[in-house]
Amino acid sequence: MTQPALLVVGGTHGIGKEIAGFYAGQGWSVVLTGRDDSAAKSVANELGDDTRGIALDLSEPEQVADALADVGAVGHLVFAAIARDTNTLDNYNIASARYLVTMKLLGYTAVVSAMRDRLAEDGSIVLFGGRAKDRPYPGGMTVGTVNAGITGLMHALVVQLAPRRVNAIHPGIVANSPYWSENPEFPERVRQATPTGRSVTMEDIVDGVDFLIRNRSVNGLDLYVDGGGLVPCEWHWGAPAVGDAQWAGGWRAPATT
Ligand SMILES: NC(=O)c1ccc[n+]([C@@H]2O[C@H](COP(=O)([O-])OP(=O)(O)OC[C@H]3O[C@@H](n4cnc5c(N)ncnc54)[C@H](OP(=O)(O)O)[C@@H]3O)[C@@H](O)[C@H]2O)c1
To answer: What is the pTM of this model?
Structure first.
């Protein structure tokens, strides 16, 4: 069997599936993961002949190495997996927070640890964070925390995995990702307050990931793909102020004088 060139952790759905499909379409060997073995295999079949699906549950970091035992050498690793969590101080759901912190920070790290000797010397890792790390939104406390943790993890991995490269991508709201399909009003409000006047798309994110994978000198970069959405601009665009809306919790535009 051809050795896989790309491992996409969280490749059964949404942006991760889009990334797996993009590289499968380019003729790469792809291994994608999800929690359920048959679901992962079914998505892999959909994406191409040289795509394999395997079960991997990041919330059980101690079992990650066994789950990856028969994955061979890889050129690149992309981590797109996420568990959804809504949490505030007033109603702190510790079990949900623990699950997210475990699957994203410990789980991602356990995969890298298990794969470190199988990752090509000229290979790279792309970790998914998100803009919630800089702009908290109601309920996004733990999401923002783990997204910020991705930057720290990236720095630690850059040092330990050298000469392999490690980068992070932080999308804004990805309007055409399945996550928002039942709540399109929110991405639309974000679009109105984004300097580009357009929504971030899954295609934009795949393009960002491809840049991080291809460019041999990009290392230790937090790549923001958000249309400049964190640049405070409501006085210029006349759009609803994201900072004043439900979305933004602690964010405030700076004084204009
Ligand atoms: N969508 C957005 O607007 C947006 C914005 C900013 C950042 N992001 C980031 O972009 C990445 C992709 O987001 P998305 O919206 O495309 O996600 P998604 O559609 O919800 O897909 C999540 C993926 O994670 C996997 N997964 C969930 N729990 C897991 C676990 N415990 N162990 C292993 N895999 C698990 C799922 O696989 P199974 O269900 O098959 O297990 C699925 O493949 C995430 O890291 C997210 O934080 C997304």
So the answer is: 0.92
